[in-house]
Design brief:
21% helix; 449 residues; single chain; 21% strand; 2 domains; six-stranded mixed sheet; alpha/beta; 11 helices
């Protein structure tokens, strides 16, 4: 392997409860949820109403300002409810599954070579939202052609699902998907693996496919880091990204002409009785395994990883992109003089506690913030965990000041929320870095729309 890149800055948060590499079973679910909030920049416009029947792959809603981008039902069934928030904002569409397994049958793509036809079928079927565009972290415009496409074949986040385990039986689908995706760009498709990957050798070799290998702490598995270290994005350029686990969905669609976003998810965390892997579908109701497999009712259930995921304790549906569900203790208790204790059982990002002497120890960390918001001063903490070549804390200050010129100069086009999640974790000022960054991205996008 020649293309090995070592990431030195970052932080591995060693949480207890990592999933055993075995598939426990398939989750029986009665309903699925589609959450517009899973797709930044989306303003949904419903094409179906409550009580309407839908087939798997049938359009449920579209993007109001880009109506060519559609969102289809992952199952056949009935629109059970449309949950709205303030100003009638659509928060969630719940679809009750039936036993008919009716699919919309799309044309087969196996022999298709035209990029326009491939895009058209990806868009019409609901496959298209699996792609993300840099900058902004939004769904790409089908009319665009990206400079390059980056696909991450590993996840370095705490308790992350093992992509090698998930994908080992889907090499055919992955290669089929890659054979079509390479036609969507005039540039390169960069496949980014962990340096210990055994899967990489089975991936097809095509002229514009380039394989790179990464080692180092989180966030070494994020596409933002891969782009920055291989071929950084410049103003005016467009890059698309994909997760390798989504290639199986695309490959199955190409083979069968049916949209079925099946996922193998990891259910992990210190509050999980039996951590392991389950087969399910994007948006599935997870209440069955959560009820049976969580130790305590005082646990927070997170769809996604603990740094960037969504709290689904109340509404227990899997996120559209997620291959991980975590259960960790809720931090709703007060710890008297906790900062005075030696902290053998406390994880520390610095050398504050004695636990730093045990680098391989795993911890049961709860959601307690251990303090409130404080003065926002430059400390250098962010730079220690952010390997992307920017000044993250100064960037966040520029966003707070709504200084668009400064945001551009400081590298806002290079990052989305997940890239600065560790900065939020180590921040002693308790600043909500990810939500601030999203406001900045939306502001810049609106300015140049």
């Amino acid at each position: 392997m020649n293309n090995i890149i070592k990431i030195r800055k970052g932080l591995d948060i060693k949480l207890a409860g990592k999933a055993e590499k075995s598939i426990i079973g398939e989750i029986n679910f009665e309903s699925v949820s589609i959450r517009p909030a899973d797709f930044p920049g989306l303003i949904p416009k419903l094409l179906k109403k409550e009580e309407d029947e839908v087939k798997a792959g049938e359009v449920v809603f579209i993007d109001k300002y880009r109506p060519e981008i559609v969102f289809t039902s992952p199952v056949s069934g009935k629109i059970m409810s449309v949950i709205r928030g303030e100003k009638r904002k659509i928060l969630e569409i719940i679809i009750q599954k039936n036993d008919l397994n009716d699919f919309v049958n799309f044309p087969l793509l196996a022999d298709e070579k035209s990029p326009e036809k491939i895009k058209e079928l990806f868009v019409n079927s609901g496959i298209w939202p699996l792609f993300k565009q840099r900058p902004y972290g939004i769904i790409p415009d089908p009319k665009d052609t990206p400079r390059d496409i980056f696909i991450s074949f590993f996840d370095s986040a705490p308790l992350a699902a093992d992509y090698e385990f998930i994908l080992k039986n889907n090499i055919e689908e992955i290669n089929l998907a890659l054979s079509k995706i390479t036609k969507l760009t005039n540039g390169n498709v960069f496949l980014c693996f962990h340096n210990n990957s055994v899967l990489a050798k089975d991936i097809i070799e095509i002229d514009n496919i380039n394989k790179y290998y990464f080692k180092g702490p989180h966030p070494s598995g994020l596409s933002g880091v891969h782009i920055n270290k291989i071929k950084p994005i410049n103003k005016g350029e467009i890059i698309w990204t994909l997760k390798a686990t989504d290639l199986t969905i695309i490959g199955n669609f190409i083979k069968t002409g049916k949209y079925y976003p099946e996922r193998i998810i990891s259910f992990a965390g210190s509050e999980v009785k039996n951590p392991g892997y389950y087969k399910t579908i994007a948006g599935a109701n997870l209440s069955e395994i959560i009820k049976e497999n969580v130790k305590s009712q005082n646990a927070r259930i997170i769809s996604g990883n603990v740094l960037t995921g969504t709290n689904i304790t109340e509404r227990q549906f899997l996120g559209f992109f997620d291959n991980l569900v975590c259960a960790i203790p809720e931090g709703n208790k007060y710890e008297f003089l906790g900062w005075l204790k030696p902290g053998i059982n406390k994880f520390s990002a610095s050398a504050t506690f004695l636990s730093k002497l045990f680098p391989k120890k795993e911890y049961e960390i709860d959601t307690n913030l251990h303090g409130g918001k404080r003065a926002y001063v430059v400390t250098g903490q962010y730079e220690k965990v952010c390997p992307i070549d920017i000044y993250p804390q100064i960037l966040i200050k520029a966003i707070l000041a709504e200084d668009i010129d400064k945001m551009e100069q400081l590298g806002i086009y290079e990052v989305i929320e997940e890239d600065l999640a560790l900065c939020e974790y180590v921040c002693t000022s308790k600043i909500e870095v990810q939500s601030i960054l999203r406001k900045g991205l939306d502001l810049v996008r609106k300015e140049f729309a």
